Amino acid sequence: MTSRFDFTSYIEEKKRGPSGERGEGYAYEGDLKVLRAMRTMKPVEVAVAQTVKLSKEFLTNELLGNAVKVGPKQFPRIHRITAECAQTLGIPAPQVYIVPQIGSINAATYGVDHDAFIMVHAATVDALSDEELRFVIGHECGHIQNNHVVYLTTLHMLRVMLQAATGVLLAPVLLPAQIALQGWARAAEVTCDRAGLLCCRDAKVATHAFVKLAIGSRRLFDEMNVDAYLEQLAEAKGGYGRMSELQRSHPYLTKRIEALRVFADSALYRSATGREGGLDRDELEKRTEEIVKVM
User: Fold this and answer.
1) Contact partners, residue 82, CB within 8 Å, separation at least 6
2) pLDDT tens digits, one per residue of 45-86
3) CA 200 – CA 136 distance, rounded (Å)
4) What is d(CA 61, CA 189) in angstroms, rounded to the nearest whole number?
5) Range among 2-11, 37-46, 187-196, 269-278 rated most confident
6) DSSP designation for 103
7) Which residues contact residue 197 at a Cβ distance below 8 angstroms, ignoring those fewer than 6 apart?
8) What is the DSSP string of 141-210?
9) Is the pLDDT of residue 13 over 80?
10) For residue 237, which of 59, 158, 250, 291 sits 20 to 30 Å off, Cα-Cα?
């Protein structure tokens, strides 16, 4: 049976405020399942509580000293794209900072769920078109909409602590929380890739953004064969590569592209963009799980 997702009604519901346990709309079921289980784990609960107390002020002060705050008079193009993504997803527009990172294409969202901010590397703005940037910022807004932010911040701070000199002493306490959070974060990325697509409304644009992220070069992008790149997915699924992915907070990019293409063919996405037909929700989640699973 084909289920129809009324995206407009969903956004109006979100604007009225939280409705309890999330899981409405477009979120990947794997994300929801892991997050529900993770919330019962004591090491994660303790890590999150401590992070909420310590990290927000630390990260904000660091950004104010080393990044450029986006606003109507500072990078108004990026400010406009952010406001449009937030409007699409039915959330307040988050604060965006441009970080002086020219060596890597990336963006991230930190803070707490009710007061989050997005960091965008300067290289990302240089490498991506406006519509590709809309996909990336829409992805980050998806983390805010789906209440991911405090867990992402916790994972970031756990890595910082483990890399510090005290990490060796704290590892027995911190590693269980980090492992649990990394497993959830891989699923959360699938949810937020869907949010990015709902904002940019073009699967080809989203794929181009992923490929530029993979290659890290605007010049090499013009020579890139996307289909040949996706053939790497089969290779990545076998052997010891799977063990490497277990240590990551993001699925391999090839998996994310393939999973997003499946979402673009779903009734859920097609109905959100005013079209009929597509994969029903059960088939969407089944195919997505098969693509992104590690073991």
Assistant:
1) 70, 93, 94, 96, 118, 137, 141
2) 666 666 666 666 666 667 777 899 999 999 999 999 999 999
3) 9
4) 27
5) 187-196
6) S
7) 135, 138, 203, 206, 260, 263, 264, 269
8) HHHHHTT-HHHHHHHHHHHHHHHSTTHHHHHHHHHHHHHHHHHHHHHHHHHHHHHHHHHH--HHHHHHHH
9) no
10) 158
Residue in the block written with tokens 């393939």 = 258
Sheet strand arrangement including 115-121: 68-69, 95-99, 115-121, 107-112
> Max Cα separation, the chain?
56
For the chain, the residue count is 295
Strands 95-99 and 115-121: parallel
291/262 Cα distance (integer angstroms): 10
Report pLDDT for 178.
76
Neighbours of 173 (CB within 10 A): 13
pTM: 0.85
DSSP string across 19-33: -SS---TT--HHHHH
Strands 95-99, 107-112: pairing kind:
unpaired
Q: b/e for 216-246, b at 16 or more Cβ within 10 A?
A: eeeeebeeeeeeebbeeeeebbeeeeeeebe
CA distance 161 to 183: 19
Which of 103-117, 132-146, 190-204, 261-275 is predicted least confidently? 103-117
**Closest among 126, 75, 129, 133 to 102, alpha carbons compared:** 126
CB atoms < 10 A from the CB of 85, how many?
30
Name beta bridge partners: 118: 96, 109
The single-letter code of the amino acid at 189 is: E
Q: Token pair for residue 71?
A: 């606003």
Q: How far apart are CA 60 and CA 50, in angstroms?
A: 17
